[in-house]
Design goal:
The chain is α+β, with helices and mostly antiparallel strands. Helices cover about 35% and strands about 25% of the residues.
Length: about 575
Amino acid sequence: MKRVKFLRLCLVLAVAVILTKLFQIQILEHDFYVAKAEAEHTSLYDIVAKRGEIYMLDGEEPVPVVLNTTVFSVIVDPQTVSREAVSELLSKIEKSRWAVSSVDEIFEDESRRYLVIAKNIPRADYLKIAEEVPGGAYVKSSNQRVYAEGDLAASTLGFVNADGVGQYGVEGALNKELAGKNGMLKTITDVNKVALSIGDDNIRIPAEDGKNIVLTVDRNIQKKVEDVLSQHMKDLGISHGSAMVYDPNSGKVMAMVSFPSYSPANYGAVEDASVYVNDVLETPYEPGSICKGFTMASAINEGKMTPETTYYNEGTTMVDGWPIDNAQKEKQLGEITMRTALQWSLNTGSVQALRLLGGSTTEITQRGKELLYDYYYNHYGLGQPTGIELYENTGTVVPPDSEYAYNSTYANMTFGQGLNVTMVQVASGWSSLINGGYYYQPTVIAGYIDKNGNFKKAEKKEPVRTTVTPETSATMRGMLHDTRWWMGDPEEYYFGGKTGTAQAIRDGAYVMDEFVSGYIGFGGASQDHPEYVIIVKMWEKGRTTSSEEEVRPVFEDLKMWMIDYLRIKPNKGGAE
């Protein structure tokens, strides 16, 4: 009898425990278990946005240069698929070189439910194995970049990494615009995680595809500049070279080249990641005597000198007790004009322009340094971001109130040493010297291709500011034209330009065995309307290069090609 009562008590307690547990589950923790049940049968999927494509111009027409292709990844659930099935599938995938996991790796952790075993399989290869994908495995499609023009403009375009994120160039700087915004699908799934169309809680947020961007870069100009520059570099045995073709009347970049280069489709095959860097925008340098144009334009614009202003050239001038020599000390000695000083690229001439800018003929004054900095930094935009849509470096121009603003520092700045600027800064500022005095913000965006395939051009940009007067600009065109007095340019067209050679810096000091050499020039039918600007730079570690003999010829090979390509009609009356 006692045993019966004991069993009855145990039964009552057991029922009480069960009822308590049911109360807890069904009442107190109802929401928790409902959510858990839903989680077992509900899946969240990303709806991957289509990455925007990139176009260049072919004349006035946009042509695609970076496209998307569909690739496939195979994912398995090791708990629902057999080792034999995976092994058989993987053997076929391995033959196509897209496998990223081995059979042992897949099954070494029994708790895993999701593992990518192959990725980025091209469509043709995927179709060969599609029927072999077993239950417990599924396929996910995604986009992969195709660079239709190979390595053309690689440093401008950049690349997309294995995670689908843009790196360097347009792909990196404009990644957010190109990537778009992924959507989301929340849906009821079956035991194999296949989405079903039933369920009141299904949610679908469409993806927002990325923008299709049209660049101002003309692929024909880009190809020509790359061919010409690479051939000169090969002939000379020079390792590094950069160039840009620029529209001085709009700020549009028509070509941008940086060597050595790489293949965006095979970006991982490089030995040195520095090849990813766009030298035109991201590597500050000392532009050398190109800056003499900036210095003289500043003094002319302030009414402190004219091209016919004279000074006595001794081949050397003293600043802070230090001698500053001309590259050719024996040339043009005696009383000469500033026009002659620019023609012969005399350092003594640009230093004299700085003295005149400050109101003296014999001394560099604080006022002169303040004015030169104002023009360099605030007018010409040297040492500050240009606002171009890509990654860029700012460089450095020493302010006049800096502890390093010695007279000798500013004397060196007049001929392009003692400061660090980028090629795009030089080209945009220099363009304002010859286009009437208007500074345009550089741009690589010509517009966009909309969903209907229509080319929507970007709004025409107005000048950001004026740098010099139209009269000063006309004077500078003439002076820069005169630097080519011996070149024998065609009379029907008008060209001007300036060389620039600077000693390289190593371990904080200038060295004599390495130069960075450059040239910047313009061309057009008449003096009043330059149509293009070309800037070129070459250098190699431990090597002296020549702006005149090695870099300027790149401009010479391009100047008439640009005239023909842009269909610039000759001035029958002569360019003058």
